[in-house]
Amino acid sequence: MKFRSFKWIFLSLFILYSLSLFLWGDSGLNAMKKQLNIEKELHRNLSVLVSTNEKLNKQLDSYRYDPETIIIQARELGYIQEGEKMLFVKGISDSSHVQKPGNVILPQTPSESGEKIIRAFFFISMILTAAFSLLRTLKGTLNHKH
To answer: If I label 13, which of 32, 72, 130, 135 is the partner at 20 to 30 A Cα–Cα?
Structure first.
């Protein structure tokens, strides 16, 4: 009788722990969802990088084969030909040539995302369930002896 009640207690604890690992564990559903989101973000970054690479290759080809492009770029960098004068206007800046290749994706640790709280809740609930079940079983066995 005593072994049978302990068996059900440990079986229920095992099922509860397995369910919590399946949902919130390192390889559970929540982790899989996060990995899919990271994969989507990486694909977006890849498409941005591919388009940036195409633009830069076109720009490189224009520098190789178009002398007018070299002259324009040299003037943007501050070079002038003999006899020319350059005027600078304060307050105007041209940042159109700056490339923004994509976002950096940093891995999240459980402490950053609140998973530790969920794991602690399930761990505490399992311990409390085990303690109350054990007390109930011991109380039942003591009552049967008297």
So the answer is: 32
Look up tokens 């977006």; give the residue: 44
* Inter-axis angle of helices 2-24 and 29-65, nearest 10: 20
Q: How far apart are CA 89 and CA 86, in angstroms?
A: 10
**0.85 exceeded by pTM:** no
Q: Which residues contact 5 (CB under 8 A, 6 or more apart)?
A: 137, 140
Measure the CA–CA gap between 7 and 10, rounded to whole angstroms.
5
Tell me 106's DSSP state.
Answer: P
For residues 140 and 5, is the Cβ–Cβ distance under 8 A?
Answer: yes
Nearest to 34 by CA among 100, 108, 91, 98: 108
Structure confidence by residue, pLDDT tens digits, 17-41: 788 778 777 777 888 888 899 899 8
Which is nearest to 133 in space by CA: 25, 19, 5, 36? 5
